[in-house]
Amino acid sequence: MTTPSPRQHAPGAFRALFMANLSAQFSEQVALAAAPLVAVLTMQAGAAATGLLQSAQTLPFLLLSLPAGVLADRHARAGLMARAEFMRAASLGLILALYLSGHLNLIWLAALGFCGAVGTVVYNVAAPALVPDLVARSGLASANRWLELARSAAFAAGPAIGGAFVGWIGAAGAYSLAIALSLLAVIFQMTLPKEPPITRNQRHPVVELAEGWQFVMRHRLLKPMFLCSIIYNIGFFMIQGVFVAYGVHHLGMGAKTVGLVLACFGFGMLCSGLISPWLMARLRPGLTILLGPTAGLGAALMVALSITFPSTLLVALAFYLLGLGAILWVIATVTVRQITAPGVLLGRVSAVMVTGGFGARPLGAALAAGIAAVWGVDACLYGAALCFLAQWLVILASPVPGLRSYGEATPA
């Protein structure tokens, strides 16, 4: 299989990708904030149930990221993203229809959340692989920063908007907004330039998947980043999986307050995206990457501390710190990936990394549900803190902190 040379349609094409990404991310965050609130406030779901709901909504990242990588290397990526986003809009439409008819329950909410996440998986794998076709290599870090700013804005405003809609006008309003934003993303994606045809070979998909996996596992930088991402996301979703129930029952939050606290994660991402050019100009890439796991460890300790000292402000600061470190990590690590991986492998390499990160989330959410059901929410939050300690030690002991420039990110 061959990949067409970069088309360099920026800035016009990249602006369309940016707007599509912004709309899609806003839609996703509004819907993700609405789902557990609907479960807790209208279905009387507890921590274990919301943990299982989070697991169902993230399970496709574990099961389907690798096949999505093969699709992204075999098909036009812009068209693939548009179809994936339309699939997510359709799943949101079914949730809204069931809610309005009075037939929505936890099983339907989890099942349709799973279906919608299938579209999100394809979108998240294809988007980073599309960027080098639109932007020159020297502009990759800047392009990744703008895409992460869009995601940050969605994480900052989406949960707050979702919580506000559920609290003020009901879940129907939140899901209607999410559907409209998702369809807007499809429209922007359809304006992207038509990609040249891709010449395909007839190799078995498993062989192609193995190539991407082997590339990551043999690379001195990608492998520890992959392992760190797995542990980080298990810990993160151990917190996410129980937080709505923890916030409502232990900290006395309402729907709007939960949404605002979750929005602090996105606000931290937004602040990080804004200061990243200044910071990355002064720190070598290895130290920029290290800041993400370090901020995550500090945030997890704050959440654990709120068990003894209940404080909405403390957990809000923890989510802010998580977002602050996450964007620096993503911008730097995605740039390393895009520079390191050949174009014919980029979709599959991205899929492996997405599997390690997003694919670990259902494991974390399921683990949260199990621990919360047997030992309680407190044990779950303490376990998350241990995960964040482990991911920090993994990256600290690797060659990653010593990376002095992106030019050093070559296969090893």
What key phrases describe this protein's structure?
single chain; 412 residues; mainly alpha; Growth Hormone, Chain: A; 14 helices; 80% helix; globular; disordered N terminus
Detailed description of the structure:
The longest helix is centred in the first third of the chain and has 32 residues, at 12-43. This protein is mostly helical and 412 residues long. The protein has a single domain (12-193, 205-408), classed as MFS general substrate transporter like domains (Growth Hormone, Chain: A), CATH 1.20.1250. Helix 8 runs parallel beside helix 10 (285-308) and helix 8 (222-249) runs parallel beside helix 12 (346-357). The protein is built from 14 helices and no strands.
Short overview:
The protein is mainly alpha-helical.
Derived structural class = mainly alpha
Q: Report, as a whole number of angstroms, the end-to-end distance.
A: 24 Å
Q: SSE order in H/E notation?
A: HHHHHHHHHHHHHH
CATH topology: Growth Hormone, Chain: A
Task: Please tally the β strands and state the result.
Answer: 0
Low-confidence stretches: 1-10
Instruction: Give me the number of helical elements.
Output: 14
SSE order and pairing:
Elements: H1 12-43, H2 47-74, H3 77-101, H4 106-134, H5 140-168, H6 171-190, H7 205-218, H8 222-249, H9 255-280, H10 285-308, H11 312-340, H12 346-357, H13 360-374, H14 377-396
Helix pairs in contact: 1-2, 1-4, 1-5, 1-6, 2-4, 2-8, 2-12, 2-13, 3-4, 3-6, 4-12, 5-6, 5-9, 5-11, 7-12, 8-10, 8-12, 8-13, 8-14, 9-11, 10-11, 10-14, 13-14
